[in-house]
Amino acid sequence: MEITERTHLATATKPAVAKPTAAAPVAPTRATGTKDADGMAVASFILGLLGLLVLNVFLGPIAIALAAVALWRGTARRGRAFLGLGLGIADLLVLVALMQFDSTVSWNF
């Protein structure tokens, strides 16, 4: 009888392990937020470069917004985000300069 009582007590004192459920949302970690911000910094840089050549009226503001959000979220690629911000502003300045040169609302080569 002692053996069964000890076995019963040993199994009764084990802590219950909570199993994750599909309904419980997983909170984003700091690493996930930083990776997203790093991606936004790189995307702003690439869109800023592309905006110098084509569609600068669209790509310039998008590059500025992505760079601002990446900097606000604390990206590790601050230099790339600042380049994207500068290139986005340069996109809009190029658009304004070429619109003044052509005296039109848009420009082409």
Could you please describe the fold and organization of this structure?
The protein has 109 residues and is mainly α. It is built from four helices and no strands. The protein is elongated, with a radius of gyration of 27 Å.
Which keywords apply here?
109 residues, mainly alpha, 4 helices
| DSSP, total strands | 0
Structural class: mainly alpha
Question: Which consecutive residue ranges, at least 5 long each, have pLDDT under 50?
Answer: none
Radius of gyration: 27 Å
Q: Give the proportion of residues in helices.
A: 55-70%
* Mean pLDDT score: 79
Largest sheet: number of strands, sense, barrel closure = none
| Secondary-structure element series | HHHH
Number of helices: 4
Strand proportion: under 5%
Q: Which shape, going by the Cα principal axes?
A: elongated
- Terminus-to-terminus distance: 95 Å
Task: Provide a compact summary of the structure.
This protein is mainly α and 109 residues long. Helices cover 69% and strands 0% of the residues.
Topology (elements, then pairings):
Blueprint: H1 2-12, H2 30-51, H3 56-72, H4 78-102
Helix pairs in contact: 2-3, 2-4, 3-4
